[in-house]
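The records we work with from here on pair a chain with its fold. Each token is a code from a learned vocabulary of local backbone shapes. A record is reproduced here so that you can trace the correspondence yourselves:

_____
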Amino acid sequence: FVTPNWRAEGAVGFSGTLRVPIKQDGAPKLAVDFDFDLRDFDVVMPEYRLSLEDLVGNGHFSLPYSVVGSFSGALFEHPAAFRVTSDNDWIRFDIEGMASHADVYQLIDYEDIGVIDGVLSFDGALDIAMTDTNVTNLALTSDLVGLEVRLPSYLGKEASVSSPLALDVQFLDAYQSIRWSYEDTQGWLHHGDKIERGAIGVGTTPPTSAQDQQAVAISGTLDTLTLSEWVSEEGEARVALPLDWKIDGLQVKKLVIDDLAFTDLILGGEQAGETVGFTFVSEDLTGRVDIPAAGLMEIELAHLRLPSSGENVSKYLGGDQLSVER
């Protein structure tokens, strides 16, 4: 499981037994059984973007590949505690540590897009596969206390607020599969040399995505969608996803566009390059919103049923054909 890319440096003390056979027939097998102590020991694992530093503690090693130990040290330049166990299939690092927002971006190998800020505590487990049939996996959980989340609507939070997050990274041969659960959203991304595809499920499991799709698929159910929280007055998305996205059959219980509110819609939409568009269908409203790369947001309504109070909505309407009911 140790690759040529791993690097280790520091002081190690050994005490135990080593039995080496000196003849081919009738000799006992190679046997290794010893205790070891680490002092200011560093281990760098580039494949997993982890660097365990200043390790101090003791452990036990024996063949065939059994290791156990407890160590203190640092991870992401913050104090951390490590517990190592193993069996025939896995070697496991249980981790209690802390990480900054910059460390989170480093862990998923993505640029800082400014949606998180602060330092969080986490519990983690790195399971390194000892056989070719298993996949190395890193799992992290956190209550995110200490981390500000700058996402629109209910997805955002202040640093003092607790909001559970679960993050799982599988290190496959061709790419890394990143899965998460946060608030009522679940999602996954495939990351090779860059983020290649993904999916987000709102209040449900994320949709499946074809292997050749270069986009993030979004579906599920949303209680309230206020357009201004997600799109600026200049027509720019307030959150930049890592690649184009496509919404398919998102059920929205309430859609708010400026001073207008509509209920029970089916929302579609996509971003292709710098162009963004939405479609919506309900008993009260059928139409689309186009947000071009340059110019003002355009709203085209094919059907609109107004409330009996008769608000002035002429400034929101566009297109040559419009069915209006009161």
Observations:
- The first strand starts at residue 7 and ends at 19.
